[in-house]
Amino acid sequence: MRSYEPQSADEAADIVRDAAARTERLRLVGGGTKVGIGRPAQDEATLSTTGLSGITLYEPAEMVVSALAGTPLAQVQALLAERGQMLPFEPMDHRRLMGSTGTPTFGAVAATNNSGPRRINAGAARDSLIGVRFVNGRGEIIKSGGRVMKNVTGLDLVKLMAGAWGTLGLLTEVTFKVLPVQERVTTLVFAGLDDARAVAALSAALGSPFELTGAAHLPAGCGASQARTAMRVEGFSDSVAYRLGELTKLLRRFGAPEVVEGEAGTDLWTAIRDVLPLAEPVDTAIWRISTAPTHAPALTAAVAAKRAARWFYDWGGGLIWLATAAEGDAGAAAVRAAVAKHGGHATLVRAPDAVRAAVPVFEPLSEPLMRITTGLKAAHDPGGLFNPGRMYASV
């Protein structure tokens, strides 16, 4: 298979124009850590961003960072850490879950809208993404957004590219707003709650004025013999101390929590972020399900009534990570039926190629949404060059 590795946006545009003339379908790749997500490739060549590397702008006072799409994510995070700053949305590292060995890249964070536990407080990656440069399917270089947050009218290309999984264009540069690292990070951990009581506790805490930056529940067997319900509080030390005390009083009916700080707390949230409790065994299928937090326990129970499964909750119950056997349809019928009944949407994140070719990987779209999706694809990639069929068979 032919492979392209442009060293500049202009070179990438030339490659795309030549590919368009030959109707050569392209698989867009960054560091290769998420290549197993989506439907199996229907392409004829790869177009990599690894040659597009380097931080192009960093203004700590303005809390803005820009980098070329192939820049290693760790490089950007290290630079931010030197100035006491961070990406607000805590992007996931997929390598353990996907069994991949590549390097996470800055552009892929935007392309996949990669957002971790802090999303409940800071928003998703797309909420901090304020500027993009990309090459469309005609080989044109497009710039959208800038260095400041602003209101827009018409089609917001910045938000459109976030989560498009490379189906609309090749990102060459992205710009994010950043936030200061917090002075103190502390986690309250309640032990032994069942799913329903855990979600009730998380909902009570999230509905309080005491501002959580993480809210997760790991049932027994997800990394420990006893169920754990975790609530993260960050900020100035005095503020954190006050909020911990108030949360403990508010949630006294759920028991006395353990206070976890330092490396133990970091390790806990890294495991939640990267789905480590479900990463093994590697031959299981992994689903990512979004729903209303209060519906989460009933949704997982509905799946479990039809097939064996393990799961845990993030985002206060709004995000379910679920593992089940990869045989047959990898639980697609059970998961889709549960989502249809209880609301939400589901993505099959990990499964063998044969399964991902046979069942919808991303949540099936209604006819009106599919018309919009195909229209956007036709507008930005009229030749259908980029990641054909990765999200939907016809797109």
From TrEMBL:
It holds the Pfam family FAD_binding_4. Keywords: FAD, Flavoprotein. SUPFAM superfamilies: FAD-binding/transporter-associated domain-like, FAD-linked oxidases, C-terminal domain. PANTHER family: D-LACTATE DEHYDROGENASE (PTHR11748), GLYCOLATE OXIDASE SUBUNIT GLCE (PTHR11748:SF103). PROSITE patterns: FAD_PCMH. InterPro entries: FAD-bd_PCMH, FAD-bd_PCMH-like_sf, FAD-bd_PCMH_sub2, FAD-linked_Oxase-like_C, Oxid_FAD_bind_N. Residues 1-181 form the FAD-binding PCMH-type domain. This is FAD-binding protein. The keyword Repressor does not apply.
